[in-house]
Amino acid sequence: MNYSKDAPEFVVSPKDAREFVVKCMQTVGTSPDHAGQLADLLLDADLVGHYSHGLNRLHIYVDDVKNGVKGNGVPKVLKQKGGTAWVDGENLLGAVVGNFCTDLAIKLAKEFGVAWVVTKNSNHYGACQHYTKKIANAGMVGMSFTNTSPLMFPCRSSEIGLGTNPLSCCVNSEKTGDSFLLDMATTTVALGKVELADCRGKTQIPSTWGADSKGNPSTDTQVVLHGGGLLPLGGIEETGSYKGTGLSMMGELFCGILAGSSFGKNVRLWGQSHKAADNGQCFVAIDPECFAPGFAPRLQQFLDETRNLKPISEEKPVLVPGDPERMNTEYSQKAGGLVYQEGQIKALEELATKCDVQMFSYKRLK
Predict the structure, then answer these.
(1) How are the residues of the chain apportioned to helix, strand and coil, as percentages rounded to the nearest 5?
(2) So what's the pLDDT on residue 4?
(3) What is the reported pTM?
(4) How far apart are CA 60 and CA 225, in angstroms?
């Protein structure tokens, strides 16, 4: 699980949580439709255990709309040729822009076999997998990339210069409910994971997660969150941080540079709102029927053979990308709703007071 098993847990009805998100967003002028799209994005992340991108982020979206992000409108297609499209997100919520581009990619891939859609002028769009799962459920291979505010110290750098620039790839296999689902930051962890550790009272984190203000590895959550930053996937050069740096730059190529948005250290700093975020994002849909027949059975064989490899420890079986998310989903379903820890509940109660919205009800799980 992505949280401490010893901490008190509380169960929340998904319906109540969704209504809470919509009401909070409406207090700053977001349309019900756009607020609903954001709610679905955040609750999907919490359901699969990506708490760093769920309700933990709601206060940021509230502040974004309060400070200029548009709570209503439609993205604009600037250019479309064959299976490609260039979109202007019109400074709308990232969830709205992401859904628009995803739907467009699916439509184009159905016609052309492969679609590549990029957007500029977007905002934080949550967990990448929200969009790639939608493409996968349309029977295709889905990929998505986004750039982010600069938070990473690139390999050998004493300055922050790249974002976490996450990416996702998802495709459904032969068995119902099974899939390959990769969703990862190009830093060792996303910033939200450090924030959650701090929220849950943890003062120490692994040395590969973050760094102090000069790029030196640090295990202190406060040092990382206040003046420090994140390390690339791989941690330090000796353990492969140049690979995380390269992946982040590749994402920037697909997003910021290809889409004509802000890129690299030019993206708005995290937590600032004096200018538009102008995030760049990329959405890819591939119809496997355009290639060798028997794709789904081969994928299923690949997933099963990988899972069946002999583990180092019998207590920890080999997993494939997407298995942890399925395990978290099953845990939530058995609990009867979305599961949150005490620190998260308290933070949401503070937001409810700030927005003058009634807090959703919850019950103690353990």
Answers:
(1) 40, 20, 40
(2) 52
(3) 0.94
(4) 16
